[in-house]
Amino acid sequence: MHNCAYVFVIFYHQLYNGFSGAVTLHSLYILLYTSLFTVLPQCAAALFDQHVPAERALYEPELYEYTLHARCYRIWSYWINIIDAIWQSTVIFFIASYAYENNANIDALVFGFSIAFSMTITSMIHVILQTTRVDIALISSILLSFFIFLGFTLIFDATCIVCLNGQSPYHVSYMAFRQGIFWLTNLFTIIIAMLPRFSIKCIYNATINPLSRKNQQNHISCSTFDTHL
Question: Model-level pTM greater than 0.90?
Answer without folding.
Answer: no
